Please model this.
Amino acid sequence: MRVIVVGGGPAGVMASIRAAENGHQVILLERNDRIGKKLFITGKGRCNITNEKDISEFFENIPRNPEFLYSALYSYTNVQLMDFFRERGLVLKVERGHRVFPESDKSSDVIDVLRRELLKKQVEVQYHTLVKDVILERNRILKLVTTKGSITGDWYVFAGGGCSYFGTGSDGTLQNISASMGHSVYPMTPSLIPLVTKETFVKDLQGLSLKNVRFTLKVQNKEVFTDIGEMLFTHFGISGPLVLSASAFYKPGHVEGLIDLKPGLHESALDQRLQRDFLKYQNKDFRNALTDLLPSKLIPFIVEQSGIDPEKKCNSITKGERLNLVRVLKNIPLTVVGTKSINEAIITRGGVVTKEIDPSTMKSKVIDNLSFAGEMIDVDAVTGGFNLQIAFSTGFLAGDSL
Model:
C-alpha cells in the first residue's frame, strides 16, 4: 500500500517508520527543509523525550481526553520508546520528575536517530512540500494538492502538529483541511505557556526563580491544579515548569494563582521556625532577619506584605504579627488575566475531536482512508515528556494499524 504521511515531527516520523516496517511504501511530506524542526527546540534544545514513570501514571498528567489514549500508550509505551532510541545508539538519562533526556543534552542527536531510521526503512522524504488542499471522492481522499503539485496514495496520515511556534511550520493548516473534509475541530488555544498577572510587583521580582514551592491555580474559585516545583517571576507575570503545567488547566474568567513558599511546613511548624530565626536575630531589624528563610530578592516584598515595620527589632515583633507573616509566606495571591500569545506556547490544546477517531487504530471515522497522529488530535498533557510520548505513541499506532 502507498502511504502518504503529512508532517515530519515525532508523530509523523514514527508513523512513517512503523508503516514502512509493515511493508508499505511510505512517502513523508515535510514543509521545512528538515524533519523535527520543532523537536529541535523542545526541552530548551535538550529534548525531553518521555517520562520514566509507569505508563499507568501518564493518564493523570493528561487533562483532556486521557481515556482516548489508552490503546496508543499501551501499544507503544515509554519503555518501548526508550528501547527504540537505546538500540540505535542514543544514551539516555533520567532527571528530576522522571524526565528522560539524551545524555548529550542535544535534541539534534534524537533527530539524527529518527533521520537514520527513515533512511534505513526506505521512507521517501519530500522536503519543502506544503499541503494546500485535498481532493475527495465520496468519503475518500483522492489526492493531496501541495506546493509541488498533486500526490496520490492509498492511505493518508495527518500529523501536522498544533499551532504554536509558527516558524517551525505548526500553523493549523491541516486542522483547517480536516474541517473542510467534514471533521469537527476544536479551536486551537495555547497550553504549557507563561501566565500574565494583574499584579505589578512581579516586575520587581523579574528573574527570581523559586524552587520547591507550591503553586495552586483556581478557576471560578475551583481548584484545578496544585503541585510543588520550580517557578519564575517575569516582567509580565509568572513562568517556569510549575506554571507551564498549571496553564494546561487555565480557562478565561476569574482565575487566581496562589504561591506557598514553604509547602513542606505546616503553619505551626513555620511559626516555630520564625521564632527560632527571630531569637537568632533578636537585636536586628526585621528586614534583616529573613535571610535564612528567603532569597534576598524576595525579602523586601515579603516585608511589605507582612505589614511589619521593616526597622522593628525582632524581639519586639508580636505573636499576631508573626502569625500574619506565616499566612503571607503560605499564601501569596496572584490574579491571572491571561496567557502569552499562542506562538509562545510549547503545545496547543484543541484539534480534531477524539470521538471522530478510532482510539484503537487512529483511523478517521469520517474519511475512509485517513488516520491522525500527534498534536493534531484534541489531547494534551502537562510538562515532563508526556506530550512527546503521546506523539510517538499515536504515530506508532497510526502506522501499525494500516
Observations:
- The first helix runs from residue 10 to 21.
- The chain has a mean pLDDT of 95.
